[in-house]
UniProtKB/TrEMBL annotation, chains A, B:
<dbReference type="InterPro" id="IPR015422">
    <property type="entry name" value="PyrdxlP-dep_Trfase_small"/>
</dbReference>
<protein>
    <submittedName>
        <fullName>2-aminoadipate transaminase</fullName>
        <ecNumber>2.6.1.-</ecNumber>
    </submittedName>
</protein>
<dbReference type="InterPro" id="IPR015424">
    <property type="entry name" value="PyrdxlP-dep_Trfase"/>
</dbReference>
<dbReference type="InterPro" id="IPR015421">
    <property type="entry name" value="PyrdxlP-dep_Trfase_major"/>
</dbReference>
<dbReference type="Pfam" id="PF00155">
    <property type="entry name" value="Aminotran_1_2"/>
</dbReference>
<feature type="domain" description="Aminotransferase class I/classII large">
    <location>
        <begin position="29"/>
        <end position="371"/>
    </location>
</feature>
<dbReference type="GO" id="GO:0030170">
    <property type="term" value="F:pyridoxal phosphate binding"/>
</dbReference>
<dbReference type="InterPro" id="IPR004839">
    <property type="entry name" value="Aminotransferase_I/II_large"/>
</dbReference>
<dbReference type="InterPro" id="IPR050859">
    <property type="entry name" value="Class-I_PLP-dep_aminotransf"/>
</dbReference>
<keyword id="KW-0808">Transferase</keyword>
<keyword id="KW-0663">Pyridoxal phosphate</keyword>
<dbReference type="GO" id="GO:0008483">
    <property type="term" value="F:transaminase activity"/>
</dbReference>
<keyword id="KW-0032">Aminotransferase</keyword>
<comment type="subunit">
    <text>Homodimer.</text>
</comment>
<dbReference type="GO" id="GO:1901605">
    <property type="term" value="P:alpha-amino acid metabolic process"/>
</dbReference>
<comment type="similarity">
    <text>Belongs to the class-I pyridoxal-phosphate-dependent aminotransferase family.</text>
</comment>
Amino acid sequence: MPPLNAYVSSLGGSPIRSLLSLAQDPDIISFGGGAPASESFDVEGIGKSYQRVLEEHGARALQYSSTEGEPELRAAVSERMTLNGLHTEADDVLITSGSQQGLGLIGQVVLDPDSIVLTENPTFVSALQAFALSRAQFRPVDTDSGGLVPEALESAILQYSPRAVYLIPTFQNPTGVTMPESRRREVADVLARYNVWLIEDDPYSELRYDEWTMTPISADPRLAHKSLYLGTLSKVMAPGLRIGWVRGPQEVLEILATTKQGMSLQTSTIDQLAAVDWLEHNDLDAKLVPIRAEYRRRRDAMVEGLDAVLPDGYTLNTPMGGMFLWATLPEPFDASESVMDAVHAGVVYIPGMQFYVADPKPSTLRLSFVSNPVDVIAQGLERLSTVFR
Amino acid sequence: MPPLNAYVSSLGGSPIRSLLSLAQDPDIISFGGGAPASESFDVEGIGKSYQRVLEEHGARALQYSSTEGEPELRAAVSERMTLNGLHTEADDVLITSGSQQGLGLIGQVVLDPDSIVLTENPTFVSALQAFALSRAQFRPVDTDSGGLVPEALESAILQYSPRAVYLIPTFQNPTGVTMPESRRREVADVLARYNVWLIEDDPYSELRYDEWTMTPISADPRLAHKSLYLGTLSKVMAPGLRIGWVRGPQEVLEILATTKQGMSLQTSTIDQLAAVDWLEHNDLDAKLVPIRAEYRRRRDAMVEGLDAVLPDGYTLNTPMGGMFLWATLPEPFDASESVMDAVHAGVVYIPGMQFYVADPKPSTLRLSFVSNPVDVIAQGLERLSTVFR
């Protein structure tokens, strides 16, 4: 075989996705992936949207369209961001084929080989995978129960001269931690002083189980020219459509768009039009009410049930939203060793080791509470109870 | 603003796409882009497929799915390739979000910075754009009316030690040239002797206006471990869905898949399922009969009409399929200078200059004959007739 790019060939895929494909067996109950509950999908409403789009704009829906995204969809998602405290115009938005594509494009456009990216530790593995394609290096920043520690961020910036800081401030993956408003301001204060990009990933904030919203860090006007904010319809509408977006300075969006052109031309026209039709014909907040209530029930069921399952001395983050519980087992338990026992018992979680950019902790694990109904959660926990005994 | 990747920022977008967006004005008749005729789309049949998929597999269609693509779709496109003379199993196929994504991923996985890619000259601009993201260098190989000249290919391989050869052997874009079977064997003979990738791009071969098929060069068993073949549903079903694929050695498909994971996770689940449903519920060959007949009519109308429009001494390639006519004007006409006159006259073509990797010829231009009905072609040609007088 002729040679390949040796670096890219060496990268390998997400260890999580391979663990999950190992657990494709329908007999295995998965607390692994970040898949929304399939039964929460508005199959009928989305079906009507596809039908309407094909009836009313069939030729347009099936034809090539712009790399930047359908104007109506750019307008709709910018309105939603504005409602959520991040003032945005349609022109500030590049539609992407899921927010993973946004991460991939940001990696290509913002990072140079050996650029340093500061991250929470642990953090979202697939963002690391995207940035690794640009040969980025990762450095952890200390976190506490309020997320990234501002002083640690400042010293890391001074020590490493990073190109970018990648953060998931709300219902972080994998820890579930949410950064309070006061902390957000302190982080913005630090970022405002240095010549560094903020990459703010916000896939989960609409899945909140209490009555509040958190303002994105990117809303700070001092960061207008140095922030790239990522949103997605995956968790509120459906991930199968692959609709996400990047909000950022227009000069950067233009370069992201030309890079998207080279990498994949455009996002599915029909999926974009169906998404905006669905948003226009439905009240998203009303749609989210039962989903939030159900996910909250599932979270509570899992938190409660885990107490009889995890060994004495465990700790657990109970997040105010999102999808994941993050547990730490007492010595000498090793969640990455136990995961195969769990699979054999018919249940799977993700070993926390996978999410670290430094000092991986074998005692940690991530459990998704959204993908299964309460009775299946109970069954899965029963299976899991044999593992840590 | 913090720094960006200076190289990627310097690349710029496709000059063709900006010319086309300039000509978005509905009053302008476009012979520019490679858009299939919208009226050829099976809007009703595709609509039924989306409906059926959502009724029968709603939860699956809206959920995350594999990076490699839906198994049924991989099977369907491999059957079609096998029918067309390129024996393929489902596992030899990676589904991509349009074949542009295939080109982008191949660029990342196959090429190193400064890798040389040999190409026809002129060639498909967006492939250059994809490979340029990997900092590839391009070198032209001499062509004649049968496409790439095998001896020229061999000397270019010896001279440049390329990583890959990028070819569109059937109804080439932009020239419309098709490489005859005997030439394909000679090219395969050369490629079989050297340690170089063949990237064979084949978007147009289903749009043939005579009763024959051309065997892909990749069908030569000696090239099994060094060929990457790209196919797409864009020209036979619809481009708005973004369904393409790469056929290649499984070791390479795996690396392409992990790279796709990092760059965009997966292709739209619902679009994939709708595509395979449509392929299963329709006879593609029967569907193609009227499309081929209509495109042939349009080709003939444009070829005939151009004779009264282009200045005496022009030459024209009349392709046996595909989408494009390629014209060369006599001295001293300059098609890249005249294009703004054309736009002002209400018609647009693509200056041939854009397609060259070396020695661009200002006398050349590309005209798409598929996008407009015969009467609109006549009207567009009438407008164009004022430009070259």
